[in-house]
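Hi P.,

Sorry for the delay on this. The queue was packed all week, but I finally got your sequence through. Input first:
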Amino acid sequence: MKRNYYIVALIMLTFFVISFLTNVIGPLIPDIIKGFNLSLTLVALLPFAFFIAYGVMSIPSGMLIEKYKEKKIMIAAFIVAFLGSLLLALIPNYLTAVLSLFLIGCGMAMLQVVINPLLRTSGGEEHYAFNSVLAQLIFGLASFLSPLVYSYLVLNLNNKNGTHALAAFVPENLPWISLYWLFTIICLLMIVIIAVSKFPKVLLSSDEKAGPLETHLLLFKNPVVILFFVAMMCYVGTEQGVANWMSQFLSTYHHYDPQTTGAKEVAYFWGLMTAGGVVGLLLLKIMDSRKVLIGFTVLALICLSLALFASAKVALVAFPLVGFFASVMYPVIFSLALNSVEEHHGSFSGIIVTGIIGGAIVPLIIGWIGDHLGLRTGMLFLYLTMGYILSIGFWAKPIITNKTINLFDKKERT
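Then the structure:
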């Protein structure tokens, strides 16, 4: 099948935009707390609203794609995200922020379901693994850049000597709202780009299709499906629990400025997660994925402990390193899950993606505990989620294990 480089490039751009819009919530949290005078629990409802949208939209999106096809769903997704961004930009208050993030989350969930099968078709099945890795690197790059863009916008809007194009539209006490004006423009541009693009026909095998509701209910009767659904909840909960609260933690306990140091730390967290993904991919070629998961999770737990209990300077290094060692968790959990069932992989994928709601639940639990016992105590909840991820390396029994290269096999050299 001929590769469609234009659509592959469009998908890579879409991955960049999804990440850019998704992973900026963490750096914003200290500013949102201050701007809207919120408790930790109330501010945690913002990422909750965003990630609960994945639970609402992931499975229905798969069914909608079969009826309306990829192009219409991608346009609809960016329209929903555009409306969410515009709502918060025009009417900046706590309630519109909750609704806005839910709408943006719905749009991003729809896109996530569309672009993976589209990438396989457009880039060619034989290149899918490479293109998926490239997409994750682009995703990581956007996650690294978005906190830095936030920091740039906020600092320039606050600079009395400078004039900024967005300054006239942004309340003086809420400079971070400028980011949502930028999101509005980005979504509008993406709608136009997708509208004028010609999409290939995506043919899904019967095993890749989302499948009816009955198939999903049948899968939920399988204990392995439940275990991996919880695993994905724990992973995304861990990722977002660290990314969303680290800036506030550094501000509360070490008095670092969230608009500069805090934002950079979150950027480094995502940047090192991308770098860790590359290292993880190399290790997966020579080691069983379960052993890689165990090793990286233990190191992530050590770094989390240092971030929470060591000195300020150590915390600045340890928090981003949690991202480095958490990098292999998502791909290993996903591959172990799909390799642990014999059929209905499309429906199972939808269920696993729905586990992204862990990004809604875990930060909320951390915030609630933080209001009552302090944020450091709240973040101890991450030991439970990471402990569960560690356990996967011991109980997972995949039908097919990842193919590795035996470096000491003489037969392969001859």
